[in-house]
Design goal:
There is one protein chain. The protein is of the alpha+beta class. The chain has 13 helices and 34 strands.
Length: about 625
Amino acid sequence: MRKPLVPRIVLLPVVYAFVFLVIVQIQFAQKKNFTLQPGNLVVSGRYGGEGTVRFPGVYPLEGDISVFFGGMEFMLAGDEGFALSGPGGTVRAAAESMILSDNGVHFQLAGGPALGDTPELSFTTQYSGGALVLVIRGSFGGAYEGPSEAENEEPGEGAAGSAYTALALPYTPLRTSTIREGGVSFIVNSGGTDYAFNRNAGTGGLIRLEAENPVISYQAVSGQNKLGPRDFIMTGAENGETFEPALALWLDSSYSAWNRTVSQGEALNSETAAAYMSESLQRGTYRASSAAVSAVYTPEPGSYEASAYVGRTDAALRSLSAAERERSARLARVFNEKSLDFLKEFHVVLYLGIRGYSNLLDDVAEMLRGMDPAALTVDQCAGILEGHPDWALRRPGRENPFAPFVDQAVYVVTGALKKNLSNGTSLIFTGEEADTEYCLRIGSALSNYEDETTKALGRTLILSVLTLTDSSGSAPRTVIRNSSGDFAGKPGSPPLSSARMYKILNTPNGAGYFARAQAISAESSVPGGLWAWTAASSVSAVQQNGITDITVNFPAGETHYMIIRGVRPFRALQLYNTDYPTDSQFERYDSSGWVYSAAEQSLLVKMRHRSASEHIRIISP
């Protein structure tokens, strides 16, 4: 039977319209999906809205986003664990928009009220030391929109309150990648190239970026730095069972050599005299050592270190003042030039903090915020590793600008290590040479960290230098590897004196009576505040009713000297609760005394301790 013609005529346009709509929908969906290649990255996802640009260069997004690099996929996907957290709880994160650049991509995340105030996440690539590096950086600027940990929580929902403090970023190696243990956490091989994180990220899972440590690097590694810190740790350095006896043995050798020098009436420089007197205090031989050193010691020009034990404070003040002017001027030039060379200075944060250079500490923080962790070089690592604990000591409770660089510094140091297979020692090499003083600085800094692996690596570096010392406790300053791969002093290399080694190992938290600069109190550590060159175990001050009361701790029955800087002109001074007159010859008498330098705003004090704690009271006009 012949079907009616009219229904067929009506149905045909409907079918055509349906097919047309399907084709349009497919084309539109394909238009919204994207796969882009900014620099060495691949980014895939879905444009938001109509796929149009909301602001110049800013692309709206919707749904999950993936970033691919080095055989790894980083997933901006809430269902996979992409989340922001703060004091109020955790919320799923989502990429709201992106900005492309020549070497990476920058995402704004849902949760903040406006661009510039939103949490952000960036992926950038660059070359560092010939290796390709991906730097992942989080920013937590906006208002916290939590709390909620519900699985169906929409991104950004919740009550506004405190700031975000952390971001969890899920990642997974691609199926084409192979994984093996090694490096800081594990190594991914993709296309014949090995990649590793610069800090422990675990095998699969989540990277955690925090306000204190918002950066992680994922980078190509060479054969030299595929090994991780654990691969260089000496047997026994893990828990100190080898370290402590070896350090004690070295101290015994060094002290015996210093004692022979003094007893034979040989020349003794200020650094050696200071080390000898400090160790004598630990060994209970201070009084005899002090008399022996005073009989043979003649300060060389520019020296002041031993003045805390043997006096000669007038000459020491001139030397100390000259050294202070030279170093502060040098640092001021470095900061004016915006140079990262301040990281090469020995315990620079401790130096600036004790003297109250708050403006220069602010410059340190500002310059570090603009520094890329992936650009960190070996010669900057000591400054980072010393600076992190020193900042916490001098500016407790404040954001530590060194924190984002510590893991990268350990990674860079590990990459520069070479191992002596015959005895298990390891040193940091630059080219074909190792600087033992620099290795000792790194080792001393690392040994004070809480992480056990980091601490053990620091002990290993110290032990490695100690194995190179001679009977006097000194080591060759420059070390090379001989034909058999063993470490040996470079021919003609000057020695690294045992006294210098002692100073490095005791700054800032070593022997309690080591001669050093010390802030007299946190309140006074401001421009124009009080600090001292002293060997006292502790010095503190309180100010009340025009009287500055300085408490000094030193063994009872012993004598020491102090140069107190930043002292404004005063009316009177008390020792032992009694008004004490000044006397320019005070060092000649077998008693306490003092003199004041108005030009240098410095108080020179000789203090005989009747008890372990004595007081210096400065009475203002």
